[in-house]
Design goal:
Elements lengths: L11 E2 L6 E5 L3 E6 L8 E6 L4 E6 L2 E5 L4 E11 L6 E3 L3 E6 L1
Parallel strand pairs: 2-9
Antiparallel strand pairs: 1-3, 3-6, 4-7, 5-6, 7-8, 7-9
Length: about 100
């Protein structure tokens, strides 16, 4: 039996399954979406408070932080037709040092 991906939450990481990372202010970090979705049926929104986001694709994002601190990053995948379906990813922890 094939399960519909409509209820499968997205998995994100910093690469190779890494979910916690420390960087220096101004340094870029890449966030990857590991789950596959039909790009015509879903919209993708990376939540990165205080971060500057550069979207490379729906599956790859570059983040830049200028201020030190600890940040939680999450991705929301929303169904294009059934808009009340929003899948929330795991949370990544990013520490920014000066």
């Amino acid at each position: 039996m094939i399960n519909d991906i409509i209820y499968t939450p997205p998995l994100i990481d910093f690469g190779f399954g890494i979910t916690e990372q420390t960087i220096t202010a101004g340094e870029a970090v890449t966030v990857w979406l590991s789950s596959l979705y039909n790009q015509n049926s879903y919209t993708f929104h990376l939540i990165a408070p205080e971060g500057d986001i550069k979207v490379l694709s729906n599956y790859q994002y570059k983040l830049y932080y200028q201020n030190k601190g600890t940040y939680n990053i999450q991705l929301h995948v929303k169904h294009a037709v059934n808009t009340n379906i929003i899948l929330k990813s795991n949370i990544l922890n990013l520490t920014v040092m000066e």
